[in-house]
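User: Okay, second chain of the day. Same drill as before: sequence in, structure tokens out.
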Amino acid sequence: MTYEWLRAEAEAGRIEEVIVSLPDLQGRLQGSRLAVPYFLDEVARQGFGACVYLLAADVEMDTGPGYAIDAWNTGFGDFVLRPDPATLRPLPWDPGTALVIADAVWPGASSGEPVDVAPRQVLRTQLDRLAERGLTAYAGTELEFLVFRDSYRDAWEGRYHGLRTGTRYNVDYSLQGLTEIEPVVRRVRREMVRAGLTMETARAECHAGQYEIVFRYDEAMATCDKHVFFKNGAKQIAAQEGVALTFMPKFDEGEGNSCHIHLSLRASSGRDGSMVFAGDDGGMSELMGHFVAGQLACLPELALLMAPNINSYKRLQPGAFAPTGITWGRDNRTCPIRVVGAGASLRIEHRVPGGDANPYLAVAAVLAAGLHGIENRLPLPAPHAANALADPSVPRLPTTLTEALRRWETSEIAAKAFGDAVLGHYAQAARAELAAFETAVTDWERVRGFERL
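Assistant: Same drill. Structure tokens below.
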């Protein structure tokens, strides 16, 4: 979509408002509704002010000192949201409305300078590093979610107890048993397509009420923009249908929600645009070998960008059919790095991120790790052919957010790839998550200790 399209739609009375949105640290879209004439006449050219704390707050929107952006001690001023016209889309579930994603830039003397800790900018930095090598990244994300028959309000008021799953049993790949889930997932599928996303596949998954919709791969930034658009819209559609869905990595003891990232590299358009992961024989190129080796070398230190929350690590546990070790395999779903495809479709599938991952940060971590492998010509060990989940000899991923934070804060690789500001900013985000959890009293503690301790 273009601004010319928006003007024509507004003149025809079909679009009246534009939501200018910003992906926050959690990968959520935050923003404001603007009248179309105001947006086109002023904001599209000059940007729109929004409080800097949007990029220095936890999931509860609490901020404080410790972030690279210290909103608390500097008066809660504004940065400028600069809309990216390539992200403009209609919202079929919100008639008369379009949405555009913006970049955060500094005003005043630093006018136009990007806010370096903004998730989109964190990814852009890694894409720029790739571009210096004549490379472009293409990515696709596979998001799973759980659907419940209860509304979000009912779930909240019941403290998320006794929720009724959208299906009654495991319907992995099933074509039956989906009666209660199909109305909402059908609407999600079709309205995303109407918004301009290209759907490839959709199916039920293992956990009762679990579903996955996969959209076609694209250049990495575009994929991440579509990812956050999809998550935001899917929740809004569910709310309109009187049901709830969640992308949280681990809702209960059953299967978790993953966000597998498929990624490949191509020569930039200035060259021949060819795939660079495949060698002349159709197998892995030397460059791809170094890229995969970089994933293994960097996983412990960059895990924080892929698994950013307490709940992330409940999914990455033995018996959960999610990665626990650090290894790679050819079409081996028990490995965190799965190499799939052949020839032009040869790619990696990174299986560590869960449904809570901020896609910009997770993809940035994959690229930073791959670049580390390429720049240092890291050798690739032999692939893991057996079940990596059951092999005690495989080195372990971080098992807690505390461990991931420690590895991130002390990582020379992370400091070099992302810079000190980004390193400290996202360390503070993890500390805020840990501090909130450490003061909470959980249901587990009440059940364990209310009577018996």
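Residues 328 and 335 are 5 Å apart (CA to CA).

User: Thanks, on to the next one.
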